[in-house]
Design a protein that fits this description.
Rossmann fold; 11 helices; 281 residues; eight-stranded mixed sheet; 44% helix
Length: 281
């Protein structure tokens, strides 16, 4: 299978690794050539680590097919194309409508959106029946869960194909309806927001909150996780879900998170977020 991935950021890279580890050919697209080059270098390095850990054979590593570029025409022969671009409806509209003019009539189009409704993206498409949500979780090549989101006009065949694709990657697919935040992010908003309220009210520090949450069995605390995901990305998801629920108070974004983003402290990718990561990069 040829897997196209549009967006060479963190999620695009993870999906590429997962696809290559499963023997698929991968084509990466991004509007920035430097992003494609950086992503390909990163993906190959991760595959090399998989070889060293015995999770990938040297022969499979040599045979891994990874290509990419800045021309959307690269997606022409893909069997499935996963959009992993910025979490902005306008960008996704432009990208997905452009893809319709490039891919074959049998190609599945999917979005990795974590917050934007499938219906709102698909409304500009000529063939919305072949469009669905395929929401991976960071890091995509490690996390097992994948949400397969059925839009109002998504066909059963498309949902089945997405489930089969996820299973082929060794993932655990869960079919969700097209509701704000789907399943995981709807639950997770309270995980993040209540933790931030505790800190803002002075009931606990960032460090204490994370320590207590991990004491319940979570591998990472909410602030550690926001730093990994990207504080800015996490805030965008919170705002999107809040707006889709018509400003439901329990989903109200945190001023603490907004101030952190305003300061340019986006987490690991900038070296500092709620924590200082400069010494670990």
């Amino acid at each position: 299978m040829i897997v196209g991935i549009c967006g060479a950021g963190t999620m695009g890279r993870g999906i590429a690794i997962a696809s290559l580890l499963s023997g698929h050919r991968v084509v990466l697209f991004d509007i920035h050539e430097a992003a494609v080059d950086s992503a390909c270098t990163f993906v190959k390095a991760q595959l090399q680590k998989a070889v060293e850990k015995g999770k990938l054979s040297p022969e499979a590593f040599e045979g891994a097919e990874l290509g990419g570029g800045t021309e959307l025409s690269l997606m022409h022969d893909c069997d499935i194309v996963i959009e992993a671009a910025a979490e902005t409806l306008e960008i996704k509209h432009v990208l997905c409508t452009s893809l319709e003019g490039v891919v074959s009539s049998t190609c599945i189009l999917a979005t990795n959106t974590s917050s934007i409704s499938i219906a709102s993206i698909a409304r500009v498409l000529q063939h919305p029946q072949r469009f669905a949500g395929l929401h991976f979780f960071n890091p995509a090549h490690i996390m097992k869960l994948v949400e397969v989101i059925r839009g109002p006009r998504t066909s059963d065949a498309t949902v089945d194909a997405c489930v089969e694709f996820a299973l082929g990657l060794g993932k655990t697919p869960v079919v969700a309806k097209d509701a704000p935040g789907f399943i995981v992010n709807r639950i997770a908003r309270n995980f993040y927001n209540e933790s931030q309220r505790l800190v803002m009210e002075g009931a606990a520090t960032v460090e204490i909150t994370d320590t207590l949450i991990k004491g319940l069995g979570f591998k990472m605390g909410p602030f550690e996780l926001m730093d990994l995901i990207g504080v800015d990305v996490n805030l965008d998801v919170t705002k999107s879900q809040w707006q889709q629920f018509f400003l439901e108070p329990r989903f109200t974004p945190s001023l603490l998170q907004q101030q952190t983003v305003d300061a340019g402290l986006y987490g690991r990718k900038t070296g500092r977020g709620f924590y200082d990561h400069s010494s670990t990069e």
